[in-house]
């Protein structure tokens, strides 16, 4: 791995290490590029276990400071991982313009369905996957997001693969293709370990049944570490991701900067 665009810090309240800790680890592992994409806050919703809205300016200033400090040693990008809710369009725009973000990584954990906030970690059936995918497609259509983080994260729920899974996958893949948004092959799914699901023993994600289709369609894919500890920047899970991505024949890119 030469570049990682999916990096968290202590500021999201469920990761360890500050900005510099991740940069030093990335340099140590021979990375040429590191992009910060901590869990973004919203001005007026707090899911918990996210950066506080009041801490955002300090984080962005720190990344700017590090860009200068480490210039010539590693290329640093300033991004955020963020959920899509239609009412925040102006907020996303201002993050990219006023706050000078280099990219937004669409990280759908919570999503809006018919005005209700839902959490994909607690899907009630595979019907939820389809509405989740539609939400991702809507986000992609705004052109504000460079990449979809862990686009198959819904597979961590224990439902056997069915036609809704095919449908959700195809909705996401069609959107990625139409709006030229990169798909992320996420190493953190491997860190979660093998689990016994009703359709067999597997990692929660990345799911081969999803990624085979990505490979067949040749859609642009990036490997993301999704590190929450500095030592995870380029760890065994990332190595496994690289190996599996190669085996699948994914069309890999090393940048999400447009
Ligand atoms: Zn996280
Ligand atoms: Zn993440």
Q: How are the strands ordered across the major sheet?
A: 1-2-3-4-7-8-11-12
Count of the domains: 1
- List the total number of helices: 8
Low-confidence runs (pLDDT<50, min 5 residues)? none
Task: Report Rg.
Answer: 17 Å
Number of extended strands: 12
Shape-level CATH architecture: Alpha-Beta Barrel
What small ligands are held by the chains? zinc ion
Please name the CATH topology.
TIM Barrel
The ordered H/E elements are EHEHEHEEEHEHEHEEHEHE
Describe it for me?
By secondary structure, the protein is α/β, with parallel strands linked by helices. It has one domain: TIM Barrel (Alpha-Beta Barrel). The protein contains 8 helices and 12 strands. The strands form 3 sheets. An 8-stranded parallel beta sheet has the order 1-2-3-4-7-8-11-12. Helix 4 runs parallel beside helix 5 (163-178). The longest helix has 16 residues, at 163-178. The radius of gyration is 17 Å and the shape is globular. The structure holds zinc ion (ZN) (2 copies). Residues 6, 8, 81, 107, 149, 226 line the site of one zinc ion.
């Amino acid at each position: 791995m030469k570049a990682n665009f999916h990096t968290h810090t202590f500021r999201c309240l469920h990761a360890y290490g500050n900005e510099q800790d991740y940069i030093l680890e990335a340099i140590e592992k021979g990375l040429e590029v590191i992009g910060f994409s901590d869990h973004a806050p919203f001005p007026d919703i707090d899911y918990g276990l996210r950066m506080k809205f009041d801490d955002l300016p300090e984080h962005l200033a720190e990344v700017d400071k590090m860009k200068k400090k480490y210039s010539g040693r590693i290329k640093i990008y300033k991004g955020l991982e963020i959920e899509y809710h239609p009412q925040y369009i102006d907020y996303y725009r201002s993050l990219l313009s006023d706050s000078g973000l280099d990219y937004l990584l669409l990280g759908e954990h919570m999503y809006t369905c018919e005005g209700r906030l839902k959490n994909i970690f607690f899907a009630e059936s595979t019907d939820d996957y389809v509405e989740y995918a539609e939400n991702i497609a809507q986000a992609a259509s705004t052109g504000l997001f460079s990449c979809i983080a862990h686009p198959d994260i819904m597979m961590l729920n224990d439902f056997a693969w069915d036609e809704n899974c095919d449908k959700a996958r195809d909705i996401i893949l069609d959107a990625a293709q139409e709006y030229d948004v990169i798909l992320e092959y996420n190493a953190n799914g491997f860190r979660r370990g093998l689990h016994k699901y009703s359709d067999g023993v597997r990692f929660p994600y990345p799911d081969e049944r999803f990624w085979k289709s990505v490979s067949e369609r040749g859609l642009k894919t990036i490997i993301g570490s999704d590190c929450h500890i500095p030592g995870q920047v380029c760890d065994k899970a990332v190595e496994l991701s690289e190996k599996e991505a190669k085996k699948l024949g994914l069309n890999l890119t090393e940048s999400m900067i447009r």
